[in-house]
Structure prediction request, 453 residues.
Amino acid sequence: MPHPTVAIVGRPNVGKSTLFNRLVGKRLALVDDRPGVTRDRREGDGKLLDLEFRVIDTAGFEDEDPASLPGRMRQQTEAAVREADVALFLIDAREGVTPLDEEIANWLRAEDAPVVIAVNKAEGRQGETGRLEAFSLGLGEPIAISAEHGEGVVDLFESLRPFIEREEVEEPEEDEESPDRPLHIAIVGRPNAGKSTLVNKMLGEERMITGPEAGITRDSIALDWEWPSPDGTLKKVRLVDTAGLRKRAKVEDKLERLSAMDTRRSIDMAEVVVLLLDATRGLEAQDLRIADQVIEEGRALVIALNKWDVAEHASSLFNGVKAALEEGLSQLKGVPVLTVSAITGKGIDQLLGAAFELRASWSRRVTTGELNRWFERAVEQNPPPAPGGKRIKLRYITQVKTRPPSFVVFGTRVDQLPESYRRYLLNSMRRDLELGPVPLRMTMRAPKNPFDR
Prediction:
């Protein structure tokens, strides 16, 4: 049974994201003094004393044209409340009840979800004035809290408990080695490449805010989903939509820097990263920088050319991108390059199929016997050099971890082994052991000399 859901709603800049971060126990949502930082709804696992629930951070509720960006943000907030078991309505104690607060209260009364009203920033005597004023909204007794300082937690607990406390079914812990575990996949790329549109097409709903404006997405939003694969089975996927990454020199705004850091954290946490390119613009230097970062972090990488349905000179474009990747990503040959259309959905099944295959290679453990038989053949076919006339002896290899596959080679004088020979071993391993185009780690280690001292 899934946990009950709490949706935090309110006008801009009342502290919704600060409260969300406190409830989930992490700085997941971006927080800034200016209003309108949050745009998409972000979900997380919340905990309040011994209550466990799903919590949704929503965009500030504004009375705007539905076609405008604030209007599209408001639609996401309305959808969150419709899905929630309880709406937590936040107002600002320092500013008191505003006309927009009254409008939100009227809207919430018309919804089916029960409402708990909390007065945030209620530190000191001023908070009590704001709390008393909130009675006028007619949504029950307001709770005074401070999301920033953690005050009012017990009162919030008592107010939410009737809507959250119910018999929970223990869910089995996720096993990293299980093939049935969700595939953690992050979709990254430059602004306006179509990342949110692609996520919406996968989910079959307008879950992410999209539009012609570049850089709409600010937070990295993780979404659990089941992919109906071509073999007829439902495969679990955790999709992460991220903010667009521009060249660092062009990033001057603090919020954009925070968004970029959030995207990089999402890359660190992913198993497979899809780098989405805009086929109408081709491959740019910034795309190669992002791809290089993904490989450096040891994540499996898929390149997807989006807007393929409107691309001109498709064949030469595809071949040009592949050639540029072969040259620009010399450390990892054969990265899959696929074509998709986020508008029509064409190519999505192939993209997810490739991602699951890459995850399997990325998680693979090679048996000790197979690994050392390959190692003996590789060293015999191409022995290591002998710098200064002294032979480098490579004795054996062992795999120390997976995700990505990581190996240690033991031998003498390994500190003098040239990088070219290490690349030879890695390329030979990928080919002969069929590890595929995933990042591999290989370190060299010499046995301790008992006479060193």
